[in-house]
Design a protein that fits this description.
single chain, 381 residues, alpha+beta, Beta-lactamase, 8-stranded antiparallel sheet, 3-stranded antiparallel sheet, 17% strand
Length: 381
């Protein structure tokens, strides 16, 4: 008996086979995968359970928290502004946000932030959840922060600070926070089911996350990695149902532009397809020149903490990383999420891809990698 609904066009049956195999071998709880090629949807599959407690089924448009896939949304917005001549990625952040340029941050550029090289992966100030949700206290804390290393000299994943920092630049230029700007400029015109700050009307239908048995925990609260992903403990991770956990409506409705997106598979795949080919009769969002700029490698190898996970970073996007997140090639760019979610685009192949799920197995687990491998074979790669 089939475990999923939807379809895969002729030639893309291998993606459907891997989607079914994920349910058999991991096992999945609920999941979806969508693929566009040439601006046309060629795969749309969904299945399983969106809410383990009630047994509510996953539906075609079910949205789920996708964590750092938010960075891809914010980065598309930044590159759109650069393409329009409103943002120079190599200019100091302080050109757009004068109060930022203090305490050793004067030379930090947006590209350093997008490449995780700015030296501010975490904040010294201890903020409450309410302060984080209010936006302005985070911005004041960023303004008062001293870099942990000489900006540009090394890199380390910038977690939540990435989104607030680039997001404030977007706000200074457009007058809108990044979640609102995305909806105005991209999400609403294209009808994409992707948000940074989930609307109240969408809460009841979203998928609820569950932890996979044996999922590794985080180090202690003083560990720098833990501080990066929890904003010094103000955001619960990996806890889900506690206050301020990732099933909490209060958290989901907050703009957390570094790691707080909620989206359906079709919403995320549609974003990347719109970026590289255009969809629904719209011209592509990002020109070939803009994509070339975005996929130039900025960071790779050992980070400031001394780890090398095999990731390669361009300007705001994870690049094709064979030992970490294999994609389709040198024109591929995207972002993944802590629960295993993954989305990317590639203008050489004309592809927009997204996989989302609600059983959190691990960062970089094999479920999406299998689907991408099947897609690559379908494309003749």
């Amino acid at each position: 008996m089939e475990r999923y609904s939807g379809w895969a066009d002729e030639g893309f049956g291998g993606v459907a086979e891997e989607f079914a195999r994920n349910f058999e071998e991991f096992p999945e709880l609920g999941a979806a995968v969508t693929v566009f090629t040439g601006g046309r949807k060629v795969v749309e599959l969904w299945g399983g359970v969106a809410d383990q407690g009630s047994g509510r089924a996953w539906e075609r448009d079910t949205a789920v928290p996708v964590f750092s896939c938010a960075k891809g949304i914010v980065s598309v917005c930044a590159h759109l502004l650069a393409q329009e001549g409103r943002l120079d990625l190599d200019a100091p952040v302080s050109r757009y946000w004068p109060e930022f340029g203090r305490y050793g941050k004067e030379a930090i550029t947006c590209r350093m932030v997008l490449g995780h090289r700015a030296g501010v992966p975490v904040l010294d100030r201890m903020l409450t959840f309410e302060e984080i949700a209010d936006w302005a206290p985070v911005i004041r804390a960023v303004e008062g922060q001293t870099p942990l290393w000489e900006p540009g000299a090394s890199y380390e994943y910038h977690g939540h600070v990435f989104g607030f920092l680039i997001g404030e630049v977007i706000r200074r230029i457009t007058g809108h926070t990044p979640g609102a700007y995305f909806r105005q400029a991209v999400g609403d015109p294209l009808g994409l089911r992707a948000w940074i700050g989930l609307p109240t009307a969408e809460l009841a239908g979203r998928a609820r996350l569950v932890e996979a048995e044996g999922r590794p925990g985080m180090p202690g609260p003083e560990n720098l990695l833990t501080r990066i992903v929890t904003m010094n403990g103000a955001l619960v991770f990996p806890g889900l149902d506690e206050p301020h956990g990732w099933n909490d409506p209060a958290l989901l409705g907050t703009e957390l532009p570094g790691a707080g997106a909620t989206a359906s598979a079709s919403g995320l795949a549609g974003l990347y397809a719109a970026a590289v080919t255009g969809i629904d009769g719209h011209r592509r969002l990002l020109s070939p020149e803009t994509v070339t700029d975005a996929v130039r490698e900025i960071s790779s190898g050992k980070g400031w903490l001394g780890f090398d996970m095999g990731a390669r970073w361009g300007s705001g996007f994870l690049l094709d990383s064979p030992s970490f997140r294999p994609m389709l090639g040198e024109r591929s760019f995207g972002n993944d999420g802590a629960g295993g979610q993954f989305a990317f685009g590639d203008d050489e192949f004309g592809v927009g891809f997204a996989y989302v799920a609600n059983r959190m197995i691990g960062h970089g687990d094999a479920r999406a990698t299998r689907l991408v491998a099947a897609l690559r074979e379908s494309l003749g790669g």
